[in-house]
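Response to reviewer comment R2.3. The reviewers asked that we include at least one raw input/output pair. We reproduce the pair for glucuronosyltransferase here without editing.
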Amino acid sequence: MGPVIENYRTEKKVKTEEAEANNNIPASDTASSGFLGNLLVVPMDGSHWVGIKAIAQEMGRRGHRVTVVIPEISMRMGPGKHYDTVTYPVPYDKAHIDSIMSSLKDMMEKSSFTEKIRKGFSKMQKFTGFMHTTAESLLFNVSLISHLAQQNFDAVLTDPVAPTGSLIARKLGIPTINLLRGLPCSLDMKSAGCPSPPSYVPRFLTRYTDKMSFQERAFNTLVALLEPLLCRLLYWHFDQIAYQFLGEEVGIAEVLSESAIWLLRLDFTLEFPRPIMPNVVLVGGINCNVRHPLPEVINDTR
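Raw output as returned:
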C-alpha cells in the first residue's frame, strides 16, 4: 500500500502545481495538503444561480475540478471560465420559462395571510410542475447519470429548493452541500435538525417578528402545525420522483436530512434570533459585489 499511497500523493501534488501555474493562483489559496477536489454542481435557475456560480468559479479558480450540470434552455445559467459545463435536453422553450416567471411576480404583494396562501399555492403548483419537469429530464437521463457516476466526484453543491442535486448525491453516495435562502414550510430547518420554537421563531408569510403577542404566538403555532401538511402537498411529486430514481421508499425530507453542510444566504444581524446546528453556516454576503477602494481624488479631499 505504501507505493500506491505515495504515487497518489505525488499525482495530487503535480496537479496542484499545474493548476497554480495555469491559473496564477498563490500557493496559499490552495489547500495546504495539496488536495484538489472534484465537485459536482447541480444549480437552480434564476437568482439562485448567482451565489452558486460565484462558488463554482472560485473553486475552479483555486484549481479544483468543477462540473456544472445545467439544462440546455435556462434563464441565466451558462458556461464559465473556471468550470466545465454538462447540459441535458428539456421539453420546454424560453417562452415557457418567461411565462412561469411572470406569474410569480405578484406573489409578494401586500395582502392578507389567507390571500397570500390562496394565490401563492396555485402559482407555486405551476412553478413546482416546471421544477418536476426539469428534475425528471436530468434524473431519468440514464446515459448522463451513468456518466456522472464514473467521474468520482467528492461532493455535490446544490440548491435544495429543487432537490435534484440531493437525490444525485444519495445515488452516488457522496456528501451534499446546500446553498439556499430558505425552503417552504421550514423544511430546511427541520431537515438540518434545528429547533424552531413558534413562541419566537416567526413562520413564513406571517410577517411576524420575534416579538409576538399571545394571539400572534397562537396563530404562529397554528401555522407551524400546518407546515407538515403544506410540505406534503408541495413535495409529494418529488417524493414519487425520489422513489423511482433511487429505487427505495424514501422521501425528500429524509434525503435532505443527510446533507453535510447547509450554507444559508442569511446575515445574523438582519435575521431574527433562532437556534441553528453546527453544520449550518450563515453566508449572507456571498451575493454582494466585491468592494473597490475609493478613487484617489476623493481620498485627497477628505
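The beta strands are 38-42, 65-71, 84-88, 155-158, 176-180, 261-264, 280-282. Residues 203 and 220 are 6 Å apart (CA to CA). Further pairs are available on request from the corresponding author.
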